[in-house]
Every structure is written in structure tokens, then in C-alpha cells.
Design goal:
The chain is α/β, with parallel strands linked by helices. It contains ten helices and eleven strands. The protein has two domains: 118 residues, Periplasmic binding protein-like II (D-Maltodextrin-Binding Protein, domain 2, 3-Layer(aba) Sandwich), CATH 3.40.190.10; 108 residues, Periplasmic binding protein-like II (D-Maltodextrin-Binding Protein, domain 2). It is globular.
């Protein structure tokens, strides 16, 4: 029987997990993965607009909206991992103090430029960061020095830092850790942190829903959970 190509739409936070484990899944099942990565908000819009996929990994809130709209099957939706937002700098650069909200604010104001996700149409971290800057009263200053990645694997904030185009990168921890050649400082202070649960589900228009369910089951195995943790995510 010819192998099935499983079309997956996944949050970019899962990039390094799929890179590490896709081969194992394909060898075990004989099927192939066709993974498209992107900011969860963008993927949720694509799915809501009817884009076809066999399995999708999006935010828990996005999955709820898709289920309510009849675009995702409610049965079998499974939490895969939780993701926190972190800060990174260029390799060897001084690491700013981000241990408290006040020290984080000082670090933001001192930076010449920061790289982050777009607050509109980008990932969850960009939306949250815009709220944090507003709460800290530094929106105007940060807008002037923010550089936004294109979204997806090619637009990671860490790549902007790597190219020397920003002093600081702020994004999901797993997305920062996906870029070699930068230093991850650590997560945002707890008071301004946002933990995003990412869940996997089967879109209502899936061509191969059983193959998608097999992939969801694979992502719940102990080996995958070890890889999730190593790549900066908290396994479900």
C-alpha cells in the first residue's frame, strides 16, 4: 500500500520537535509527514477559512473556537504541551536582568531594538507582549524599536537577533531554542508570563483522519515527552 502523506498544520513552537521525531514516526508507520509551521493565530484563521489538513496543533483557545465553528472534530482533541515566553540575546552578549517586572522593563527601555512576533496576525507571544508593554506604560517606546519576524520558521525572533538586527528576542521559549547561535536568557517574570497550552486535533475536512489520530497518539508517548521537554516545552 502506498504511504499516506499526512498534512499537518502546526505552531512554530513544535518546529524542533518535528525535526527530531518525524523520521521515527515515518519509519514506524510507513507514512510521510508534510508539516507546515506558522504562528498559531494564523493557522487558526487558515483552518477557520477552510484550509484542509489531517492534523493541526494550535492554541487551546483556538481549538475551542474551531470546534465551535465546526472546523475541528471535538472528539480526540489532546493537549500536547504548554509553552512559556522567554528572552534571548546574541551569543556571548551581556544577559539583561529579567528576574523581576521592573528589571524587565528597564532592560526593554535600555535595548536599542527587540525582535518579537507581530501583535496582530502573529503568534500568541506577540499579542501578549503588546499587552505587557501597555501595562508597563512603554508601548510607544517599544513600538519604535520593535522588529517583527515574518512568522513561521523563517521569521523566528531568534534569527533576527542572530543577524544582528536586534539586541533582544522575545518569543516562545521553544522558538528561541530552535535558533543555534543565540543565548536564551530565560523566561519572563511570573507576573507577566503567559503559558500557552497547545493542543492537537483533527480538522473536520481531514482526508486521512485516522492517520492524524495516529500522529496525535505518537505525540503522547514517553519518548516524545522527553523530546518536548528538551526543546523548551512542558509536556502535557
Amino acid at each position: 500500500m502506498a504511504p499516506t502523506e499526512i498534512k499537518v498544520l502546526s505552531t512554530t513552537a513544535m518546529k524542533t520537535v518535528f525535526e527530531a521525531l518525524a523520521g521515527d514516526f515515518e519509519r514506524a508507520t510507513g507514512n510521510r509527514l508534510n508539516v507546515t509551521l506558522g504562528p498559531s493565530l494564523r493557522l487558526e484563521k487558515q483552518l477557520g477559512d477552510g484550509e484542509a489538513a489531517d492534523m493541526a496543533i494550535v492554541s487551546a483557545s483556538g481549538a475551542r473556537d474551531l470546534i465551535a465553528a465546526g472546523k475541528m472534530i471535538a472528539a480526540g482533541v489532546a493537549e500536547i504541551a504548554k509553552s512559556s515566553i522567554g528572552v534571548a540575546v546574541a551569543k556571548g552578549a551581556p544577559k539583561p536582568d529579567i528576574s523581576t517586572v521592573e528589571s524587565f522593563k528597564r532592560a526593554m527601555l535600555a535595548a536599542n531594538s527587540i525582535a518579537c512576533s507581530k501583535p496582530v496576525g502573529g503568534g500568541q507571544s506577540g499579542v501578549h507582549l503588546a499587552k505587557v508593554f501597555d501595562e508597563l506604560g512603554i508601548t510607544a517606546q517599544m513600538q519604535a524599536k520593535s522588529k517583527y519576524g515574518a512568522g513561521g520558521a523563517a521569521g523566528l525572533a531568534g534569527l533576527v537577533v542572530l543577524r544582528g538586527e536586534a539586541d533582544i528576542g522575545i518569543q516562545q521559549m521553544a522558538e528561541l531554542m530552535a535558533v543555534d547561535g543565540i543565548d536564551v536568557v530565560g523566561p519572563l517574570p511570573a507576573a507577566i508570563q503567559m503559558i500557552t497550552p497547545f493542543v492537537a486535533g483533527i480538522p473536520a475536512n481531514a482526508s486521512y483522519p485516522d492517520a492524524g489520530r495516529a500522529l496525535i497518539a505518537f505525540l503522547a508517548t514517553p519518548e516524545v515527552k522527553r523530546v518536548l521537554k528538551a526543546k523548551g516545552l512542558e509536556p502535557a
